[in-house]
Design a protein that fits this description.
With 291 residues, this protein is α+β, with helices and mostly antiparallel strands. Helix content is 26%, strand content 35%. The chain has helices at residues 25-47, 77-84, 98-105, 134-140, 143-159, 191-194, 236-241, 247-250; strands at 6-14, 53-58, 65-73, 110-116, 119-124, 129-133, 164-169, 174-178, 196-210, 220-222, 228-230, 232-233, 254-266, 269-282. The protein has a six-stranded mixed beta sheet. It has a five-stranded antiparallel beta sheet with strand order 2-3-1-7-8. Helix 1 (25-47) packs across helix 2 and helix 1 (25-47) runs antiparallel to helix 5 (143-159).
Length: 291
């Protein structure tokens, strides 16, 4: 890790109880641990498992309770801090940081997400759309990242109503501020609610490699990229037309099918299921066709 990439920033808890430059020890301990983990895990999400960051704490200054952090970063690490909102961003979209995105998302239900170039366009159940950088979307869609942010921001308000949380740069300029009214937006949803589901349906040519005429499950197909995958057979009419006598004509032959793919993404991990909704045509010479 390069020691040249140093970035200093500050976390401020501004409330009645911190006016005398003190803070509850449990809040401070929680904040220190979660801020460190937030930066370390965000670095790995955006730059891979080999990337790392070291986070240190310096003596705080008089006034509102302020903790000064020193982050030692790998190459590209400053981009992680910019994506989080800890460092000033130059993003081309109006909502360019995780802190800004959480204020815009407001924990509303997302019904659609489209990725265009480096921008994620999110549609909510109330019809509103927002655009955020893909790097920011990766972070706000990660349960561990959301949990650490929640611990840093929401713990202060849990301890005392009316607390304002600020992130400041080395010149004491406010980079991000979370008001008491906005704190609720930073609460981490449950893993179940953070699950993202992307469904696509398209006609493609596949080859049946495993045929299970007696069941909807157990079928396998070879995709155009030569990957062999399992797929549920939901075309009951096709199964009724096919008899055991015709099994040999199906296995190994190419068919055009309507393939439905469902990708379920939880905490950055993707589970994919596929189903054949319709068998459109048998792509062989006329004498061998079974439909």
């Amino acid at each position: 890790m390069s020691t040249d990439n140093k970035y200093v920033f500050k976390l401020s808890y501004d409330s009645n109880s911190t006016a005398d430059n003190t803070i509850d020890a449990s809040i401070l301990g929680t904040s220190l641990i979660n801020m460190s983990q937030l930066i370390k895990e965000s670095t790995k999400v955006l730059h891979g498992e080999e990337a790392d960051a070291r986070v240190e704490v310096q003596a705080h200054e008089p006034g509102s309770f302020i903790v000064e952090f020193v982050a030692w970063l790998d190459n590209g690490g400053i981009e992680v801090l910019r994506a989080l909102g800890i460092a000033t961003t130059t993003a081309s979209v109006s909502i360019g940081t995780v802190f800004g995105a959480l204020k815009a998302l407001r924990n509303r239900k997302q019904v659609e997400k489209q990725i265009i170039d480096d921008v994620a366009e999110i549609t909510f159940d109330d019809g509103e759309k927002v655009k955020i950088p893909v790097t920011v979307d990766k972070l706000v869609s990660n349960f561990s990242i959301r949990k650490h942010i929640s611990e840093v921001v929401k713990k202060a308000s849990d301890f005392e109503d009316g607390a304002t949380v600020k992130l400041l740069d080395d010149n004491n300029e406010v980079v991000e501020e979370v008001t008491p009214e906005e704190v609720e937006y930073f609460k981490a949803p449950s893993r179940r609610l953070m699950a993202e589901e992307i469904t696509t349906e398209k006609a493609i040519n596949v080859v049946f490699t495993v045929v299970a005429l007696e069941s909807k499950t157990g079928w396998k197909i070879r995709l155009p990229n030569n990957d062999e995958v399992s797929a549920r057979m939901n075309d009951e009419a096709f199964m009724e037309r096919i008899t055991n006598r015709e099994r040999q004509f199906i296995k190994g032959d190419m068919f055009e099918v309507k393939l439905k793919t469902v990708e379920r993404i939880v905490d950055g991990k993707t589970t994919t299921t596929r189903s054949i909704e319709q068998v459109i045509r048998h792509r062989v010479e006329e004498s061998k066709k079974v439909l």
